[in-house]
Specification:
Number of strands: 11
Strand order of the largest sheet: 3-2-1-4-5-6-11-9-10
Structural class: alpha/beta
Bound molecules: calcium ion
Largest sheet: 9 strands, mixed
Radius of gyration: 18 Å
Distance between the termini: 20 Å
Helix content: 25-40%
Amino acid sequence: VVIDTDTGIDDFFAIVQALRSPELRVEGLTTVGGNVPLRYATRNALRALEYAGRAGIPVAQGSARPLHGRFQYAFYFHGPGGLPARMPRPVIEPVQEGAVDRLFRRATEGGVRRTPFTLIAIGPATNAARLLRRLRPLEGRHRLEHLVVMGGAVDVPGNVTRFAEFNTWNDPEAAAEVLAGDVPTTLVPLDVCVPVRIASADFEQADPTARRLGLAWLKRHPGRRLGLADCVAIAAVTDPGAFGIEETAIEVDTSHGPECGRTRRAGRGRSIRVARRVDPDRVLGQIRERALAPVIGRVDTPR
Ligand SMILES: [Ca+2]
């Protein structure tokens, strides 16, 4: 898999969770603006790799802006640099190649990595939409097998407006293109993320760095529990049995009016897989074991 991330706190834990999931082989990360500006997202992605001891995994920078306009950042939620506590400056650097070029090459070139791959998009869908535009003329003759997209709110209120979830609101055109596109797609909307929330007791048991980040977030948001939507998206890939799936077409409001970014079932259009029910305890168990548990046996060294 490749993980496309606008690395804030839930992305950080989702990357760690994916790296410690035996079901996945994480080939690379690509970054996008969203929670924070692109350069912060990239820095936090590099930090997640160093923290997990997987500094050899390449990070490619992608879109600093959505398809139209500018990203609206979420410093209030994630903290000024995208994380709620200070972390060491990363030693490793991103690769020179851009995210979409790199993904396109992965999807189309031969060589040792001929296997199909899945792109898990846990930020605004901008990079994914740009990739699909480039792949479309190939009419399926490529190796992007599956897209998993964290975004949207189907039967629950949004988290940025009453109607919209943050990722679809931040680049509604990209979300609309991806969800209507021609690569098999699974949408992981807020509906299945809301029930999965981390309490301070979970962080008390966690790895020291995870504990520091989690407790700093909880201190900034008194009385709340931390939702880790991006971790739920990883779990939808590693443990699909924990979810109930509805097959439906989804349309995204791209009006840039009050309902901008709203995701609704559509009467026509391509059907995608939408995660609609979740076993929250099962997903929480995976997050505790893989995203929060102490990191041991760091396996590789910086490039
Ligand atoms: Ca994210």
